Amino acid sequence: xxxxxVERMRVKLLDMKADILQNLLAEDEEFRDIIEKDDSKDxxxxxxxxxxxxxxxxxxxxxxxxxxxxxxxxxxxxxxxYGLCLKSGEPIPRERLEAIPYALYRIEYQNEVERRNR
Length: 118
Description:
mainly alpha
């Protein structure tokens, strides 16, 4: 990978990281608001707020997972291994990295991982 491309991906990853952190902070504020409003005894309201809490928690866990992948990609940039498939050691195509800058595998290995995790 040439230095210019890797630097562009580093900036993109840092931007994605900042967006995720902002979203998690916003969700945390929404979560606090939901809890504070939970004084009502209406079962429908309580059920609705439980659904909201579950939705926020699910979104948060997905964002945290993406954040970890981004952190790992940034670490690979620092170590000089960014863009190499963790399974084969071969370069991940640029198009894939541009679409998913924190990709761990070439597409054929990613499909294999996803099949095993089902």
